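# step 3/5: fold
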Amino acid sequence: MNYLELPKIDLHCHLDGSLRPQTVIDLAKEWDIEIPSSNVDEIKDMMVAPESCPNLQEYLARFSLPVKVMQTEMSLERISFELFEDAARENVKYLEVRFAPQLHTQDGLNYQQIIESVVRGMKKAEDKYDIKGNYILSAVRFLPADTINDVIDAGIPFIGHGVAAFDLAGNEDDGFCEKYVSHAQYAKEKGYRITIHAGEQGCGQNVLDAIELLGAERIGHGVAIQSHDSAYDRVREDLVGLETCPSSNVQTKAVDELREHPLIDFYQDNLAITINTDNRTVSNTTMTKEVEKVMEMFKLSMDDYKIIYRSSVEQSFASDEVKQHLLTFIESA
């Protein structure tokens, strides 16, 4: 099977975890930003997480260097364009990218400028390549919550025009959802779809809370539902999409090794699973690699892949028109 040529959909990809190492060097030079090296291999080593991290925090440490160069409109536009370009070149037909505008205000940009910049980069890639996309605005749990509604407000003009959803990301404490009920409700009232990082390093109860308290339509990762019957049943009954990220989950020790990943059990039990990269650079991966790993490890057929692809279309936050467009690719695959 030619995995590169397969049409692919990625619903869980972080902008600041997917920069080209050379771009970090270029932008640091252009904006006179001090970075530890100008050698691309050394910079890449700083951006790629080990295959096995002791915890999620060790994995998240790889984001600090990229964020340093993501503080101007031109930088954000370029980085956004390049991510969509890289994805298009491996036949990703639809890409949802999440990022936290709160992280990009260090040089004085406001939230609207930040959001507009990444959407502009995405639109340029859509014009040049056969790819469609949307942005998801993430609030990170380690930052003050009192600016979240400001981010939501800044994104409202872009809903339906490059922005689709609201997300919570970052290190996961048990019971975190209660703190963000008002923010998620506010986002829904303003027209955002909802996807929440839960059940990655935290407990399965977090997944259930994300659905019941925050209105999550999709769950980022969700691995922990395998040991929480109520969360598992709710995900299955409500067809809540699971954004599985195989390589990342092994790196952060959400699972010990790929062969133990519960995604295959989820799939066989008709849960709505999708396959995603999480962070192309930090996890040193592509959608092609992720699909190949899953297909080969679990002996999935082309028919299986078509089911997963169609599930990705259904679970996406794309417009109905774009969804119909995406389905045409798998029909001829």
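# step 4/5: annotate
The chain has 15 helices and eight strands.
# step 5/5: archive (pending)
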